[in-house]
Amino acid sequence: xxxxxSRPEMVNIWSPETKFRIWFExxxxxxxxxxxxxVIPTESAAAVWKAKDVEFDVARIDExxxxxxxxxxxxxxHLAEIIGNDKARFVHQGMTSSDVLDTTFxxxxxRASDLLLADIDALLAALERRAMEHKFTIRMGRSHxxxxxxxxxxxxxxxxxxxxxxxxxxxxxxxxxxxxxxxxGAVGTFANIDPFVEAHVCAQMDLQPEPISTxxxxxxxxxxxxxxxxxxxxxxxxxxxxxxxxxxxxxxxxEEFFSKGQKGSSAxxxxxxxxxxxxxxxxxxLVRMAVIPAMENVALWHERDISHSSVERxxxxxxxxxxxxxxxxxxxxxxxxxxxxxxxIANMNKFRGLIHSQRVLxxxxxxxxxxxxxxxxxxxxxxxxxxxxxxxxxxxxxxxDVLAALGEENIRSKFDLDYHTKHVETIFARVFDGK
Amino acid sequence: xxxxxSRPEMVNIWSPETKFRIWFExxxxxxxxxxxxxVIPTESAAAVWKAKDVEFDVARIDExxxxxxxxxxxxxxHLAEIIGNDKARFVHQGMTSSDVLDTTFxxxxxRASDLLLADIDALLAALERRAMEHKFTIRMGRSHxxxxxxxxxxxxxxxxxxxxxxxxxxxxxxxxxxxxxxxxGAVGTFANIDPFVEAHVCAQMDLQPEPISTxxxxxxxxxxxxxxxxxxxxxxxxxxxxxxxxxxxxxxxxEEFFSKGQKGSSAxxxxxxxxxxxxxxxxxxLVRMAVIPAMENVALWHERDISHSSVERxxxxxxxxxxxxxxxxxxxxxxxxxxxxxxxIANMNKFRGLIHSQRVLxxxxxxxxxxxxxxxxxxxxxxxxxxxxxxxxxxxxxxxDVLAALGEENIRSKFDLDYHTKHVETIFARVFDGK
Amino acid sequence: xxxxxSRPEMVNIWSPETKFRIWFExxxxxxxxxxxxxVIPTESAAAVWKAKDVEFDVARIDExxxxxxxxxxxxxxHLAEIIGNDKARFVHQGMTSSDVLDTTFxxxxxRASDLLLADIDALLAALERRAMEHKFTIRMGRSHxxxxxxxxxxxxxxxxxxxxxxxxxxxxxxxxxxxxxxxxGAVGTFANIDPFVEAHVCAQMDLQPEPISTxxxxxxxxxxxxxxxxxxxxxxxxxxxxxxxxxxxxxxxxEEFFSKGQKGSSAxxxxxxxxxxxxxxxxxxLVRMAVIPAMENVALWHERDISHSSVERxxxxxxxxxxxxxxxxxxxxxxxxxxxxxxxIANMNKFRGLIHSQRVLxxxxxxxxxxxxxxxxxxxxxxxxxxxxxxxxxxxxxxxDVLAALGEENIRSKFDLDYHTKHVETIFARVFDGK
Amino acid sequence: xxxxxSRPEMVNIWSPETKFRIWFExxxxxxxxxxxxxVIPTESAAAVWKAKDVEFDVARIDExxxxxxxxxxxxxxHLAEIIGNDKARFVHQGMTSSDVLDTTFxxxxxRASDLLLADIDALLAALERRAMEHKFTIRMGRSHxxxxxxxxxxxxxxxxxxxxxxxxxxxxxxxxxxxxxxxxGAVGTFANIDPFVEAHVCAQMDLQPEPISTxxxxxxxxxxxxxxxxxxxxxxxxxxxxxxxxxxxxxxxxEEFFSKGQKGSSAxxxxxxxxxxxxxxxxxxLVRMAVIPAMENVALWHERDISHSSVERxxxxxxxxxxxxxxxxxxxxxxxxxxxxxxxIANMNKFRGLIHSQRVLxxxxxxxxxxxxxxxxxxxxxxxxxxxxxxxxxxxxxxxDVLAALGEENIRSKFDLDYHTKHVETIFARVFDGK
Lengths: 435, 435, 435, 435
Fold this sequence. Notes:
The structure is a homotetramer. Chain A is mainly alpha-helical. Chain A has helices spanning 8-13, 16-36, 42-48, 58-68, 71-83, 85-88, 97-133, 153-178, 195-204, 220-247, 275-288, 291-296, 307-336, 341-348, 357-366, 371-388, 392-397, 400-406, 408-413, 418-421, 424-432, and strands spanning 138-143, 146-152, 180-181, 208-209, 254-255, 338-339. The first copy, chain A, is built from 21 helices and 6 strands. In chain A, the strands form 3 sheets. A two-stranded antiparallel ribbon of chain A has the order 1-2. In chain A, α8 packs antiparallel against α10 (220-247). The first copy, chain A, is elongated and about 105 Å long. Chain A starts with 7 loop residues before the first helix and ends with a helix. Chains in contact: A-B, A-C, A-D, B-C, B-D, C-D. The interface between C and D is large, with 90 and 90 residues.
């Protein structure tokens, strides 16, 4: 997590202040439940809430931790300083540090998920708007980077929309994966704490009780969560790469918005670099790098070891903050992307009419010419366009065999671009209707 | 995919024979639809089905491909050899190779998923059986590899059950991700083929039509699929590591079943190596290594490039075959795992009674002793056990301060193991009821 | 490892036949050393060599292993079938299976390295030849996919040469990493076998004795080896991506050689797809995926566990076979790459003269105009070219301020392409001289 | 990079202050060279050095960047504020931002390497000291977590020493990989800047000139660098796992030093958790996660794109800071590791004498008993020890067949531990002599 690629709301989720606040809430709710069970005095539970609006002194907690080398004990010690040792001694009773740490981590991940879901919604809105805008903006479809057949810019936006819609669903599932809490004590047996406490705390924190925990919440959940972030990041890369290609000097079918003050190469107007999408390509790699460590975290020893902890301290904030930033940046890029329909047409006409060769080939086959002969007929005219730069339609009309097989009108009809867009509405309906 | 770690049914899914069979089915169903639309003659569509029971000649297809360097064309040429050039010329009309290749890959992944789901079901059954069997088999719970508090072997099996149950749900979701087909032509516009063909083929092949495809089915789906396999593999590693720990010479709470003929170190009866679970640890790494390449595959150029293809030719079979083998091997290990309850008790008693120190501490706190003082009281007795090997209960009973604070009966009650198992039924109900 | 991406010589290294042959050699050399030490009878050692030219029966060994579940014992049993139980009983004395397995694996990796080094040499030769051929073939240099300043095609080949030269050095180092053998017995103490045996076997097999082994050769060596393959693969990807960009329809500065029989889109001459380099992009991902598992293999438990074994059975062959194939394919691509110098010039002139704006800017600064003013002067003329498609040189000559600052001759000189190539010889000397 | 796992000296290398200081030095040295070439006035070059001892105002630079969106221009603007616009206009002449950024990044990586090399040296010293101390401290060697044959604790330390020694060599090589600088202008052609400037700057900054750069220094160098850090991290994990195993309750052959104030489970003296080495296991994953992104960074588009930049802003500091911290922590762990030789002996005797079965087996074979019969003889006695807990030596002496074959003295000699340590000196000499 570095400031350059961070947004405050997500950063906030991972601040010490937020963390201690969640710790406090968990401990306080647990006390309420313990009091209800009669395990601890009601007054003590009530007293804990005195710290509700107190800002915890992070520096003080760090100071205590430097001695105790145990973060939860350090926090509890500080809490006792606030509410009094007398009341504080019932706090955390029957619990283990992991009860607090793991439940907190999941609360943070849930909140991060909510921000990310909102990010995706904003991106979806931008993609949909641009898809509608360019529904029939003709451009070349390309396979292998080579002109294939026409498509529309709207279809490009639409497929990114569909992909991000899937990512939204995946993230919703991933959010559910980690929306669990556990207050099950030392090795997860509830020996020292009643399951009621867990149920109460989870209900208050909007979590589901983890059906079976050890000292920790099982890490396959987190592996799935971070894997999902990795998939979303890969989709961001997918969109970014498309835009980078479109902005290439030789293609120039679109450009990232270039703000006024922005320098770089202002004396070279052709030199508007797709730096945002290049940056997104890199950010995707960063989010993705959390995936394998998260999976390596699954196999903890027996009821827990702490090897996952350092990994999560890093990838928890890093992956969510970076993804949040990347989604917002991408939304901005999509929103303001400058699209050049004229260049799309110009690119399409680079080899005069040649992109229609496939249709002519198909027409010949349908007209009863064998596949091999059809190839030959198309090929001999195509090669002239390729080598001499002449016009494909003109060549075909001048080719007696082709003319005989298809007739002029039929040949001309194969150069009609509407042919390629006739199912755009169908596809749009699939993608956007009843979404 | 290597024979040593392969099972025939899964290997079969990836054989050339199976692949060509699926190709054939897709082409034949597409012809039916095209005939229904009146695009191709009904007789031609019917004629294609003549190849229904013909075994395709893989060597012959390879031979043709060696010349054409295009696998689908090679297949179609071979098909024409079977059904006659005359009828064959309507096959594949309006389609692009990727329509066949991508839809086939997804059919294979769906079938692989079905085998894997069955594998998981078998594993779940084994885990459940062993969980029930050892529901109240007491063993030490360990955090950081260090004795913590008692738990039961049944809970260990139960948590693996819960984890694998989650994996089953994830795999079901992953299966849905890749259960789509696309017959959308060159760049996915349906310009040369009616969406009806796609709908028909998908219905016949038990797939959903891909709402919007380019020349390919979007690869975020496959990224998610392989990421899910990676998570499942990590859970296998998790279980394998637990068993490897249990089988350590110094722990010996369980052993992999050791067949009679099996050599290795038969003269060293203590030397029964957990080679199956060690192997599973390695296999988990192998499955996991498909995850990142699958994510790198998402960002194809424009409407497709073919960089994903070689990756999928490798990871498609490798990850599914390896995971299938690993799940079956793990099921076998769990099924036959030799559990040593006596050793579990013996291990627990290594430091005579010391594992109950936490309970005594808690009791002291509840009896009104300050947390600090409670620590001191417990600690001074614990240290004697630790250093001199005496018995913790006896020491506590001989400590006047402790005796004064708790009373003999109360102290003795803290050494009751039932205390730790009182919620086992609750947890089992959470895990196994209404599953 | 799949046939499609394999070459026989490398595949051979990993065949069962080769493996058993190496096993045999290690065992036989060990017997020689043991005989020399007087540990076993000389005749027995001599007798072992009777199997020197015998082809081992892989099926028979597999059959025995199916019972013993131990590959080395299966092999030794088969060896005994050949040379007689009587002589065979001294084979393998004092050794542990890993002595044979690990030393063999390293012999295979060394041989694989030698093939890969030869592959790189061939690639280097191709790159050097093409670099010399196009030393002064002018093309646009591009940053961010956007035209920057001119460079030459020769420099592009030269930088790939330099990169692959570094990879050659890295691979030489990686080869040394794994060119060790160990015959140190059970846990590496030489308790049951004299270090002389190790020294003798290693000398015969062209390996260095591992200074300190446990039951296994330490796996940090292999981690480094596979990491190096991953770097080489990434360089292949680097070159592949450059070619894919060059072959884009809109760029078309180079094309992969397109063989005569090759179909695909023969009727669309513009549709020559860079399928080889796209394939190389995918193969790079495949080689790279071995890196992390190889690193995860390092932390074996105590003196060894067998988790690394399954990983290496897969990545050993897969990564080397795939890399061998990829290097050879890339060499072929480079060798036959069709370069289009005319298109390079045409692309460069897309924005008539604008690429020289940087030089004009610099000239203005050097002529004493402030940086800000220089920008303004250049910018106002550049924008005309950009917006109206006029010629940059003409505009500058028509701009009184620019003319006043620089003079006509000076302005014209800024459009001289030789300016950009004046240090090409220097760079070539750095790269190719005394290599 | 998070404070908890950071040390100030390494953090410092990555501070904005350090970065701007290096930028300044590069620019200033470049001016010197340009002045020497007569390209810029000598006074201007001299004037730049006025900023030598000025502390750059990071906030001010950020402020400018917020407008210009270009970090190098922001810095140069700030520099101009210090030395005056008049002198400043010659700064950076002919250079491109990447000349500064890439050379700086490499200076930072070189400095980081130097710290890491010092870290490894400290670790090597600790490992050597402990190896010498425990050269003959007998402990069980274990394969598969199962007792195999005796070894010594010194050998364990020695093999970690040898492994880290290899890592030192690797890091030295990796340092050389990235110890290059480039001042080659826009696309690396030196069109706008003489190679002399690069030579001069590199000499001043202790770097080698990059033989051929584009706009950037080629990223295969950095891929190799980070891959090497990944290998080192994996070795750290290797050592950490060993210690975690040794500290297990049932094994307890060593413990991490437990400081006095440290809480956690002070009332449970058996509950000294190996939290440092568990932490190191996690940190290893974190360092390793930089490897793949660094490899993905290699394939930049044409002469550069900026996708690598965000990745390096993160992994540059993160991987080096984390590795520095981990090495220091590991050194501390090794230095203070509490070793329990008595427990090692006790563990070894768990199955009374059984670990010598291998030697007895060998003795029987050498005495002329067939391998099969030897197995049977050993096995029948071993099983008694295993099942009834009797003493292996006594059983063997009571077995007439064994006695007949070997004689009492010979049998007894097989239980001599010196047998296993007789080559310890040899191995130590290999590892430590002439190091």
